[in-house]
Amino acid sequence: MNTNIIRIENPEEKMGRICRVQKNSYTIRFQEQELPAKLKGSFYGEDPEHLPVVGDYVTFQYNRCGDSIILSVCERTGLLQRPDQAKTGVMQYMAANVDYAFIVTSLNDDYNYNRIARYASVALQAGAVPVVILTKSDLCSNVGRYVREVETVSEKVKVHAISALYDIGLDELKEYFSPGKTICLLGSSGAGKSTLINAITGKETMKTGKIREDDSKGRHTTTHREMIFLENDVSVIDMPGMREIGMANTREGIEDTFSDIGRLESLCRFRDCRHETEPGCAVRAALESGELSRQRYELYQSLGAENQRNYAKKKEISKWVKSYKKMNKTGKQ
Ligand SMILES: Nc1nc2c(ncn2[C@@H]2O[C@H](COP(=O)(O)OP(=O)(O)OP(=O)(O)O)[C@@H](O)[C@H]2O)c(=O)[nH]1
Ligand SMILES: [Mg+2]
Question: pTM for this one?
Answer without folding.
Answer: 0.89
